[in-house]
Description:
The structure is a single chain. The protein contains 23 helices and ten strands. The chain is of the alpha/beta class. The protein has three domains: 3-96, Four Helix Bundle (Hemerythrin (Met), subunit A) (Up-down Bundle), CATH 1.20.120.140; 110-306, 3-Layer(aba) Sandwich (Rossmann fold), CATH 3.40.50; 312-473, Signal recognition particle, SRP54 subunit, M-domain (434 Repressor (Amino-terminal Domain), Orthogonal Bundle), CATH 1.10.260.30. It has an eight-stranded mixed sheet, sandwiched between helices. A hairpin with a 7-residue loop joins strand 9 (278-282) and strand 10. The longest helix has 23 residues, at 413-435. Magnesium ion binds next to helix 5. Magnesium ion binds at residues 122-123, 146, 152, 198, 201.
Amino acid sequence: MLETLTKGFTSAREKLSGVRELSEENIDQSLRDVRTSLLEADVDLTVARDFLARVKERALGEKVATRVRDASGKMVRVTPGQHFIKICEEELIDLMGPVDSALSQAKGVTSLMLVGLQGVGKTTVAAKLARHLQKQNRRPLLVAADIYRPAAVLQLQQLGGQIDVDVFVGDEAERPASICARAKQRAVAEGFDAIIYDTAGRLAIDAELMEELAEITSETSPANTLLVCDALMGRDAVNTARAFGEQLAVDGLVLTKLDGDARGGAALAIKAVTGVPIKFLGTGESLDRLEAFRPEGLASRILGMGDVVGLVKDFEEVVDEKEAEQDAERLLRGKFGLDDLLKQLRTIQKMGPLRDVFAKLPMFGSIAEQVDERELKRVEALIQSMTPAERSKPDIIGKSRMSRIARGSGRRSKDVRELLGRFTQMRQMMSQLGSGGMLGKIPGFGKMAGAGGMDPTALLAGAGGKPGKARREASGSRGHQKGKRKQARKARRKNRRR
Ligand SMILES: Nc1nc2c(ncn2[C@@H]2O[C@H](COP(=O)(O)OP(=O)(O)OP(=O)(O)O)[C@@H](O)[C@H]2O)c(=O)[nH]1
Ligand SMILES: [Mg+2]
């Protein structure tokens, strides 16, 4: 997802690391990489040219403040490279935003019509949006207005069945506009507060399709008309959006299949060219892979800086807050075991493909590529062949237990040993995340941290076999330095003895 764009900005950032000030020469050099990646990502040419010109003008013209206050009020140094990236970030956000992904309502009912070319993902988006509304405690009705493709009605019924949403189906040979009008009547009569019309797609925009959509519009006056485009279309998505926009009042776009596209040029340019904002992103086939579009999040991801806000939102979707609090409490009491690890791994898996999760984390962006989904399954199998006692107290696992666990899961003792080693390592990693404030943002953990006014990292102290060490490492740099000083003293004493 978006790798092509990220590549250019990352190499621009690398070129500027260490330069003392921004000059026309080094800006041009960096922008050359950005230009290449914009073009490779299939960004509209005019949009790319304007973007580069604006960034250059600002980078040359703005006086760089070398010291600024950060969010916590501390003075920090800003390098010319960081300033350059900040300009890029602001310009990217400007290009894609502003966006209000809230859906319009009329008389308390959210009605929306999905339109677009064949196969772009309209029917999938219809079901995803129904799910999205359901999560907001709305009661949606899906309407099968595609009467042309033989399996279209069945497809919507199946998707509706998955999420327990009613699907309105017309009579044989009934016209789409009539189906939609009757569905609207039923929605009103039966107290549905959202209605989603899934229309037919065509290979190309033709007069017949436009007429049909106009007819549905005049029969039902949907509060939202959303055009669905597919990221794989690249620059063609922009042309399609322009053409639809000329004939239909389009309120917003849904850009699908972003997961299958490394380029992402459409995401960047579509608003600038057509004036229509992207409202949602589709990032996978399953029905929970829909994101409300946040230009800040996408800009940050494009720049290779991750999207922590988006990640926290994902967490909120899949984490049961109460359960998370209980977990945190167990952590506090030092009872974090492999069972908890297993649960956490499953939670992470619920958030979608691992590489997407990692792509939203700054620093981890580049390892997202290397994440191996199968590894998770292997870890699951290993933990599953442990006894409850072993899971809660991994310290008791000696040689013979190791080989039994290995046999049970079809792996080798070495794998068990590695897992246990990594488990210890993971606890350390979590403590580092905690000291960066990440854990505080995750539901459950934040509360714990607030309750006793304590550092969330302290939760991790004593979680394993060596509480003292864990506490030192968890409490951040000060404790760490203390530890180092102690080590140095020890070494000096040892030297003296020699
Ligand atoms: N990877 C990925 N696949 C998607 C996404 N959205 C939809 N698809 C897939 O794209 C294919 C077409 O999706 P549909 O929802 O049937 O598209 P449509 O626009 O309704 O198609 P027509 O009704 O034939 O015009 C299906 O196989 C979907 O699973 C997405 O965000 N990511
Ligand atoms: Mg369809």
